[in-house]
Amino acid sequence: MAGTDWTCSHATMHAWEFLDYEPSLPVSEKSNPLTRDIDRASANNIVRMLQACDTQIFQEDSEDTYQRLSSERVVETIMEVAKRVELILKDPQDSLVVLSGCGTSGRLAFLIVTGFNKALRELNQTSIYSYIIAGGDRALLSSQEAPEDDPKQGMLTLKKVCEGKKRVLFIGISCGLSAPFVAGQLDFCMQHPEVYTPVLVGFNPTHQARDDPMPGCTFTFRSVVQRMQELSKSQKAFLINPAVGPEAISGSSRMKGGSSTKILLELVLSAAHAATFTNMPVTYKGILQHMEAYKQTLDITYAQTAEIAALLEAAGQSLRCGRRVCYLGWGSVAILGLIDASECNPTFGADFEDVRGFISGGYREMNNNEGPLSSLGSDFRVTHKDFLHLVLPSLNDQDTVLLLYTHSDNIREVAKLAHRAREKTSNIHAVYHQVDGAAAEQQDDIDRLCSSSLKITWASSPASGSLLHMWELSTKLLLNAVSTGAHILKGKIYQNDMIDVQVTNSKLYRRATRLLQKLSGYPESKCEEALLKSLYQVDTLTIDITSSDITAHTRTARNRTKVVPLALVCLLTGCTVMEAESHLEQQPIVREAVETCLSKLV
Ligand code: F1P
């Protein structure tokens, strides 16, 4: 496996931790040396590489470099924030805890908030949690990248959610410390300290926070972070920003960034709930023990390398021949299916139909702010009934169906749906979380219908942490591996970069320009020029185009495909945009097309 580690006096340092490793990039955007050859790896090796990358989440700090999840400062801040939540739980009148983010960060805010509010309802307690996702609830299931760039929209949404509240703990999530939407909210909190206490969760050191100007603002994300740092000295603001290492696919913060968000926020909220309802005070040792349970979850999940690889192969095979992958789930593991599926479009330029999630009980089970969204179009029809009507009739053996459930779900229902799907395809697989010793009736029946069953057995009383949270994380890791691996096998990744990235917000626009620089060796200005030509499908840039801002460019990009690959082919061969288009039509595997161009240059 690629990537070099050096052992220094205190701990093992990974190559990416050295200050001269891609120094201009924040950790969340660096390329991970462990996955440099992931585009050429076998399914088994892809899984092993993803495991190695995910393991970096729990790596201990090596002196003088980055603070990590288990660093003293991070654990102490987790405790401090947990105690603030505890105060609100004990006296919820006129108070709120808000979790907010864009894309995956907002989806995880939704998952965590609905889960912890449910726990409160079961204890007959007032719900104190609210979530905000940039772009509203439709962003839970589809890519809405543009609202991420709007700090004012972030601020206004927060203000509305908190109307009439006297005390708000605001937790803003931006893995890259970069989303203007979240920056606007944090700034607003600092302007109203009598009500709001801001907390920032992300995975870069503060000096790497994004410093680009934002529309209509005098502040940048970095300047917001600097003000928060000042306030954190008197505990008027909190920053939880351990480094978890670069993503397996550069910048794909849905992966480690998302998993770490889930872990961190569950650590905070679980500790607060235990302190309030079971008289277990928030302790340093307690947080570390709980963290260890998550680490074990990662180990338990990846112990099934061969089974995960088999799923990834099946999904990859379906995508390669233009067929689809369906996740059919129950309960909160189904939500992780919906989330994973929704990310394939912005991440890999996938079609909405390529990977699609369905949940038993639909929006009733999801319990989202805006209720049923099915009227927004067929993309938003998410129940199993919708699957039976919209998808099943056209399924065949080339489509992959993946059942996601746990032993607390209605296994009879799972078996019933498996039978229905089996009428159309034999390519059915199951991912099933069960508790030690609890043999589910009908499981044998399901096993017979499936070409593979990935069963994960958990000890009934984990040392620490809710079993459901562990099942969710495990499912997230598995699905991220399946969808990422399948798109790698489809040829969407070049080395460890998403070359076919959508250019639908300013972060992605900058990333695309950087990628072109890296692969072509040309200066930034020439690469941005090529990007714009490809985006607007012209060979000469007009004044209209060059005088427009990034917002206009990213709006145009919404309706375009293969923008970055086209720009790269133009840069490398000097051909016109139309010629590049026909070139890519002949060779739809982007990686192969790029390599052909690169090889012609040597
Ligand atoms: C937010 C986000 C990602 C998404 C894509 C665009 O990033 O929407 O969730 O996958 O990369 O950005 P962040 O604010 O959490 O860094």
UniProtKB/TrEMBL annotation:
Annotated protein name in UniProt: Glucokinase regulator
Annotated organism of origin: Labrus bergylta (ballan wrasse)
PROSITE patterns assigned: GCKR, SIS
Top-level division of the source organism's lineage: Eukaryota
Annotated ranges, domain SIS: 85-278, 315-492
Classification via PANTHER family: GLUCOKINASE REGULATORY PROTEIN
A molecular function GO annotation: enzyme binding
Any single biological process term in GO: carbohydrate derivative metabolic process
GO cellular component terms, A-Z: cytosol; nucleoplasm
Amino-acid biosynthesis recorded as keyword: no
